[in-house]
Structure prediction request, 584 residues.
Amino acid sequence: MDLITEITIFVLAAFVGFEVISKVPTTLHTPLMSQTNAIHGIVMLGGLLVIGLADGTVDKVIGTIAIAFGTINIVGGFMVTDRMLGMFRRKPREPKGTGRATQPSAEQEEG
Amino acid sequence: MTLPVAAFSEGSDFVTACYIVAFSLFIFGVRQGTHPTTARRGNLIAATGMAIAVAITLSLDVIGNGVLIVVGILTGTLVGAVASRRVQMTQMPQMVALYNGVGGGAAALISWAEFRHQLALGGEIPLDVLIPILFSMVVGSVSFWGSNIAFSKLQELISGRPIRFPAQHIFNGVLLAAILTGCIVLATDHDSSPSQALFIGVLIGAAVLGNLFVLPIGGADMPVVISLLNAFTGLSAAAAGFALDNVALIVAGTLVGSSGTILTIAMSRAMNRSIGNLMFSGFGALAAGGAVAAEERPVTSIGAQDAAIKLGYADSVVFVPGYGMAVAQAQHALKELANELERRGVRVSYAIHPVAGRMPGHMNVLLAEADVPYEQLREMDEINPEMPQTDVAVVIGANDVTNPAAKNDPGSPIAGMPIIEVNEAREVIVIKRSLSPGFAGIDNDLFYQPNTSMLFADAKQAAADIGSEVQEL
Prediction:
């Protein structure tokens, strides 16, 4: 791929990023950050590519650590985001395990 | 059907197509994150994209040293999975900082490996490979070390207070200039074996800079630091993509770069401070000037029972949580209290300041953990107009984000910072352990208002006590 094509992709991706991310509400900024965090773990692909060319011990050690770091980033990031998002529910005080499909409670009108 | 072997070589149309699918799934996944009901699915979609990208890369013909790859992936998966299951929601900011750090570290290491590979090829490194390598190395390294310091501060392994030494900015400036000079020398030598010793020197310089850059920033400014470092790591991943000609890295890294940048800007706006001011002056400097000895002013102090009466007979109550709620792990007790109030017909909502807590949206996650429905979580701009009609505003573990001085006193260090206007509510209850000032080091006029009552207690204990008192009304 030539440099100009890569720069084009970079610029367009930046605009797409700004458009998409601006629409995420403040409520979800922590999971958003943690999810995008997981996405930059993609740098681990670079580790996979360079370790194939590694001969000496130094190169092998660098490559293995890079892969381990990238994997922590990916696996940890997506899992922890999933855990957080699992907590956002629409209705309070549901019996456990029924998800969000229960009837709206009339609690607020009592009293 | 078997694909021809050439399909699995680096840069083939088939491989590129798979990468395009992968990054489309990232974008789509993040797009789904705009609403709590779809966000979880969006996260799974993005994770699927990642699985595709990793799988197709593993099937490439250039892949070698399989054992080491397995070792790396297994170690990473184990550490990542265990850490993400064990972490408590209150510790989320440092967890994100840590994950961010390893991502930056991976980018820096990959650039170093690629640099060594290019040297081994014969010593001449094309500039369009070398410059991204240098960028990714420097930024990734700053991000790795900076994130580790942020993690240590939030985890209280080191003091969360700003750590400074004389002429710090000058030293950092000189260091940055030295790093840039090193990079320029390396780039000038690109056609005649650039020195690896110099490369390692620059790598170490960037590591030192990463440490020094975050050390002087106070714990409460960490939300901004973490999102800025998040943007850094994203950009270093994108740069690695330029060096390795990998479109998935470029798009994904840039996406993260945009996201981190947007969050950084949003937060510095919420604090009414420029990014430069946040990074280079720290609140410590302001605190020195603003920490006027709190003169003895009378406050109204109440107990849990009085608070319960005020809340139990109100029509509408707004809770304003801050970092103190997270520290005290008070979210569950607070939710119980809210349940009691709702049972009595009180309208309950939560006003979330954009920089409450230690990362953007931190309070929302904690309250979601306690099963607070997200419709009750209200943003600052949305809730402020309703404040004058609110019977009781309860400030729980927050301080500076409610300080009316930000609006009324142009001389205040936090002048101009948008606040949750609890002082407009009919009554205010502040749950706080003492009258000590917040991290900005300034007194809060709110405490001395005639309609403000102070409840001196631990946030969790207070919420639980008020809850049981409300039950007995």
User: Anything to note?
Assistant: Residues 92-111 of chain A have pLDDT under 50 and may be disordered. The two ends of chain A are 68 Å apart (CA to CA).
